[in-house]
């Protein structure tokens, strides 16, 4: 009995289960994306062990507060459904969160306000095939009310944003204007703008916009937070007035409010559509030849002459945008579910975070018009790589390992990849290292990739030369990298372990004891690897590139060996992939963090080390990328893996702290 009790206590200590009272689909993430469209439009609801939409303020990705408040008034009773405002001398109830659902582009909350359920939908479009739409730094905030008792009710909704959306320093002075017409827009900005300047990762340039189409029942107001909110709480409508006493963000907290009187409702109301955005121009300063500077604008400027036009178009496009988002969400869900439901949930949480850290830009010609042939995205991919190549081509990049020509780069790989020199890699938290086998893999795949490019460019001799060099490197590499038993890869010293691009760790505690690898438990707790203590082997996730590109330089036997390592660590191979994926999902849902999905965490207990909201979570789409890769080799058949007793041997000490993990 006592033993059982201890067991239970241990389990509950390992699982900090969120005491949430709402249904969460697919799960309650560490932080819920609300408006996540660009590095400077990035609003989240931090969760921890479970935080309702009205239990805290939304936060910027760094964790600083973004004032965003919402009330719904039902038959004269006011309920707070968004943010954590407090207004003296008023009576307000808290709406009760009934559910949270997230998909790749949407986070939806149902908040019960007495006899009415308010559906609060945050839609951050992801439009990879439309550069104009993808580059619009706006998100939708959509409200719809429905009686939950079959009766009719009088309903008014209210929301506001504070000036915290435009600065990292609340003591700075802001100014604002409200424009009316077919759309009502509140615009707020710093009075002293700093071009390309940041304070605490917040841009000190540009403006925030809070807008809605002019419809019957719409009222607006700007002014001190408590004053404007009390106005709605007391009367259910705003005064259509503007405060013109421009002041600091935190000086009597100016807010920018919109209210909609939905009238007496007996069924679900049509959506109240609001857009929130942050726009700056120019967006990026880019170094071109001879050290000259070039201003680059967000791509949408090539199609719109003013922000107002862009906002009108964005708001007018809502129903189509929703329909595209639903198609996109369901495509991602279907494709990722083919791997597993847990995988689909990790991907859904990662999509906005990955896209929301990028921006698509365009330059201007000498005549001042936009040069739409010159598109660059500031992060990865063709448009993403272009600025890197071009910059290096200017000759201003000081390091020899990145040349302007791919062929020159290949010469570097030929001379350095088999026995990589002491250098940092994406695992640079471990410091710089020599002989990183995982880097060797990447380099060898790179040489083969250049052989394919040379072939496409009609350079047959070069192609064949590079192809044979990569083949010969694979043979030599296998000698360096295979253990004396021939059963696994001895991946140099100091190689953190990863499964492809997913955040996966296994218990490599070296005695082959896998008793704690219980399905459903968080595998991220496992592993003993740190700067002070490294095993002599690991997962060579860079082989993903060989599979993705279909270069096929590594023989199947290496992949099989690879899988054997994973397999041996967890005894049963049948569900190995899903077990790893479930571990990541458990980490993402363990309630121990409140930050946008972090990719660096303690494997001993799943606590995050930082690295919040980074676009590297795009790597979670790795398995989807292989699905759509026609020439990729087949996935190793884990069902067919020979399940043997663990074969791994290593240092006897396992007293080192958990491994820290980040990056791709
Ligand atoms: C607000 O400040 C900006 C930046 O200094 C300035 O361009 C704009 O004219 C000001 N607007 C108002 C209404 O004062
Ligand atoms: C970039 O834009 C800023 C602000 O408009 C301007 O002051 C600056 O001269 C521009 N730089 C170039 C290189 O065009
Ligand atoms: C790296 O590998 C080479 C070739 O095997 C070896 O000579 C060198 O000592 C190794 N360096 C380190 C730091 O292990
Ligand atoms: C193959 O490429 C290497 C590296 O560029 C070069 O040194 C070698 O001469 C080439 N061999 C042939 C046959 O072209
Ligand atoms: C765990 O490993 C130890 C040492 O190798 C061994 O004695 C023990 O039987 C293992 N336990 C299980 C459950 O496999
Ligand atoms: C990993 O294995 C080691 C050695 O068997 C054990 O001490 C440790 O608790 C395990 N950790 C987890 C989280 O499974
Ligand atoms: C994988 O291996 C198992 C066991 O050998 C086999 O039954 C199954 O058909 C294989 N699957 C594929 C896709 O080859
Ligand atoms: C698994 O491997 C062992 C040892 O190499 C071998 O004896 C056995 O036949 C293999 N089993 C299967 C099903 O391949």
From TrEMBL:
Keywords: Signal. Residues 634-664 are annotated as: Disordered. Residues 1-19 form the signal peptide. It holds the Pfam family GtaA_6_Hairpin. Residues 634-656 have a biased composition (Polar residues). Residues 404-494, 562-624 form the Glutaminase A central domain. PANTHER family: GLUTAMINASE A, GLUTAMINASE A-RELATED. This is DUF1793-domain-containing protein.
